[in-house]
Amino acid sequence: MATFVDRVTLHLTAGHGGHGCVSVRREKFKPLAGPDGGNGGDGGDIVLVASSQETTLLPYHRRPHRTSDNGGPGMGDNRSGFSGEDLVLPVPVGTVVRDADGTELVDLTAEGMRIVVGPGGQGGLGNAALATTKRKAPGFALLGTPGWTGDVLLELKTVADVALVGYPSAGKSSLIASISAAKPKIADYPFTTLHPNLGVVESGETRFTVADVPGLIEGASEGKGLGLEFLRHVERCSALLHVLDCATLEPGRDPMSDLDVILAELAAYPVPEGQTPLLERPQLVALNKIDVPEARELADFVRPELEERGYRVFEISAVSREGLRPLTFALAELVESDRATRAADTTVRERIVLRPRAVDEVEVTVTVEGSAEDPVYRVRGAKPERWVHQTDFRNDEAVGYLADRLAKLGVEDKLFQAGAIAGATVVIGGENGVVFDWEPTLTSAAELMTAPRGSDPRLDGNARLTREERRANYFERMDAKAEARAELEREREAGLWHQDDEQRDDQEDDER
């Protein structure tokens, strides 16, 4: 079973906002004393926090699905709903956070750094907050918006001062156990170390951390062995310590060939932009296992050649602890030198700058999709998409309120400019947007209309005839009357009745 995980994908769902409440205050002798519906509470955020108490992403490997609390709904008597509790997820220091597309969001390199990766939904307003002087008792409230849903990639890159690199079974785990209080697994077979081990070393007045990186072999940068999985843990180190096995019994291997292979793999590994390449960082060489007589002879033989290459060489034994004190002091010097260099670095670091929204920023965009015969007009923008989520489409008054908000934002003007006509298909949002059959007549102000609460007469259809329709009806009636008079005249001319008979009938009717 896995005990160390340095890559994981989190599936996050932030809390949804609570719905607003529709309520009317009722008092004695005041059956309708005004709206008093409270607002819904905001949903909880999902926050990542860098913590030195965490060393692995294993908890998120076992439980990758995380959800924060939803906000509570509003209530009558102007009582607002409760806000959902934030979900705080501690991650190891050195964790890189990326979105689902692989874009880096933040590098949590310091204790206490925080990032909100999943913002919670916004609570809806109650009808008390929606009341105005013209709409004194709204019969609707706004719904809470859904919380953010998506995936976040976490990648751990160990934060250490010195990295121990070398072939499997070179004695790196034994060395870190000897110079620190770390207790790594030690055995006499290759690839004993399956994950990086961290140890804290004190040398004089200097304290620094050492990372034991799992063994590298030829082709590690291309995915062979475990090197590709753990070379990323070398990126943040100030110095490298090559641990060479002087007592290996494998044919074709010796300290010099091992060093050449490791250097080639380190050179082939690409570091992030702005970081120093691995081979340009300070490096020391430790010839290990000199407690074996043959190994001591081999160390004495290869040491001059290593020094000719410019390396500081230390002959050590992790078992007998011979030569460890000079080695730790040399490592401390490199660490102190690197820290001093960073402290004196006056390079301006990239900072996160929060800027207010520009006055001329476009809040709404309308694009035409589909064919020319059946176009679809897609409306995108933070405000209209949020407003759609807040609208209860079962309430006509709420739909009319949405139409007014969109009209004030200029959505209808942009639709007209894009060529939309009445009955056109309009989509507000992305792939899961809300589809409308656009009716531009909804732009009239709802505050100027009198209608029962929870209804909007503009949605009932316009029964008033236009001027052309009234004129057509008038001419139709006039033509019908003229046709009736003409028919009577034809009957009289045919002798079916006489005008005297008509006058006599009229006289009899008057006598009755």
TrEMBL record:
Entry GO terms, CC: cytoplasm
Basic and acidic residues bias spans: 485-501
Descriptive protein name: GTPase Obg
Region: Disordered, residue numbers: 61-83, 485-512
Species this protein is from: Microcella pacifica
Subunit structure: Monomer.
Cofactor(s) in the UniProt record: Mg(2+)
Role, per record: An essential GTPase which binds GTP, GDP and possibly (p)ppGpp with moderate affinity, with high nucleotide exchange rates and a fairly low GTP hydrolysis rate. Plays a role in control of the cell cycle, stress response, ribosome biogenesis and in those bacteria that undergo differentiation, in morphogenesis control.
GO terms, molecular function: GTP binding; GTPase activity; magnesium ion binding
EC numbers, comma separated: 3.6.5.-
HAMAP family: GTPase_Obg
Domain (OBG-type G) ranges: 160-336
InterPro entries xref list: G_OBG, GTP-bd, GTP-bd_Obg/CgtA, GTP-bd_prot_GTP1/OBG_C_sf, GTP1-OBG_CS, GTP1_OBG_dom, GTP1_OBG_dom_sf, OBG_GTPase
OCT domain mapped to chain residues: 356-440
Major site of localization recorded for this protein: cytoplasm
Subcellular locations according to the entry: Cytoplasm
EC category: hydrolase
GO BP terms, alphabetized: ribosome biogenesis
Protein family membership: Belongs to the TRAFAC class OBG-HflX-like GTPase superfamily. OBG GTPase family.
Binding site for Mg(2+): S173, T193
Binding-site residues for GTP, renumbered to this chain: 166-173, 191-195, 212-215, 288-291, 317-319
Residue span(s) of domain Obg: 2-159
Keywords: Cytoplasm, GTP-binding, Hydrolase, Magnesium, Metal-binding, Nucleotide-binding
Sequence ranges of Acidic residues compositional bias: 502-512
